[in-house]
Amino acid sequence: MKGSTIAIIGAGAAAAAAGIALALSAKAQAAPPPPSCSCPSGEVCQNTDGSCPSGYFPDPNNAGCCQKCVQSAPCGCDEVFDNVLCECSKLVPAIISVPASVNVYPWWMVYYDCNNDTHCRGFEGANLPSCQFKSGECNSDAFLFSISGKVTDSAGHPICNVPLDFSTSLSNDYTGTIPWTTPDGYFEGEWSLGIGTPSETDSEGNFTIDVTQNIDITATHACCDPLTCGAAENVRPMPFSFSITVTIPGTEISMTFIVLVNNTICEWNNYTG
After folding, report:
1. Other CB atoms closer than 10 Å to residue 218's CB: what's the count?
2. Which pLDDT belongs to residue 146?
3. From CA 259, how far away is CA 25, in angstroms rounded?
4. Which residues on neighbouring strands pair with residue 207, listed in sequence order?
5. How much of the chain exceeds pLDDT 70, in percent?
6. Cβ atoms 216, 181 nearer than 8 A
7. CA neighbor of 163 nearest in space, from 203, 200, 216, 123
8. Which tens digits make up the pLDDT trace of 233-266?
9. Alpha carbons 4 and 2: distance in angstroms, whole number
10. CA–CA separation, 129 and 250 (whole Å)
11. Which one, 10, 143, 148, 198, has the greatest CB density within 10 A?
12. Sheet containing 95-97: which strands, arranged edge to edge?
């Protein structure tokens, strides 16, 4: 019996020792108390690692104190205010936003006076319900349209003054000609294109690409009497497409999109027989 009593007492002592060890371990792992300091009103103590809480930065005049970050002046159009550093930080371009595709719908006319062997052409307008051309009303107007884009950082902040490079699938990048022939073979010609590009983004991170398109007649062929061949007016859908790539030089950031030009040619023959 005495031996059993000693064993029980020994086991109890061991358990008590283990409990004390666990208590000490838990106390060692407990979070340290909040730092204490004497800071001016409106300021807080630095963290135990010397850093400041979010929205605060070290007060150079009071050691161990952090003063609230207050933006005293606006940032530039290529900067954003950093509440941790309490200063304007440069934005880093990450995204070029442009439409995946651009669709435009210009209407053109070509006119051939078979009796006098003369021809002319012109721009009628965009998104028209039908041909508007009247005999003899030729013009040299071009079709103008613009494509807009934007450069931002990964968080969506627009960035100004970002340099830009452009390339296209046209023969000379910024100019090009595309041949066309009407299905009846009476007219042959070419579309001429000119693309104006900016050198950098504007103050709001935007950029605009200006496109000029015109139509030229390069050849006319045998006239056809409307009484034999049909109406003097023929409506000819003649679409074409090209691509534009926008790149930020010195980076791998680029974006390519397609421009689909849904041309309609209103073909007119003046033939009196």
Report:
1. 12
2. 96
3. 70
4. 149
5. 79
6. no
7. 200
8. 678 899 999 999 999 999 999 999 999 999 999 8
9. 5
10. 46
11. 143
12. 95-97, 143-152, 206-220, 187-196, 175-181
230 Rama sector, left if φ>0, alpha if ψ -120 to 50, beta otherwise? left
Tokens, residue 185: 């073979």
Do residues 251 and 94 make contact, with C-beta atoms less than 8 angstroms apart?
Answer: no
Q: Which two tokens stand for residue 210?
A: 């200006």
What one-letter code names the amino acid at 21? A
For the cut 80, the answer to whether the pLDDT of residue 80 exceeds it is: yes
- Which token pair is 96? 């070029």
Measured between alpha carbons, how far is 66 from 52 in angstroms, rounded to an integer? 6
User: Phi/psi class of residue 188: alpha, beta or left (left: φ > 0; alpha: ψ in -120 to 50)?
Assistant: beta
Taking the C-alpha atoms of 50, 53, 57 and 62 in order, what is their torsion angle to the nearest 10 degrees? -60
Query: Which amino acid, 236?
Result: R
User: 45 exposed, middle or buried (CB, 10 Å; 0-12, 13-18, 19+)?
Assistant: middle
pTM, 2 dp: 0.72
23 phi, psi to nearest 5 deg: -65, -40
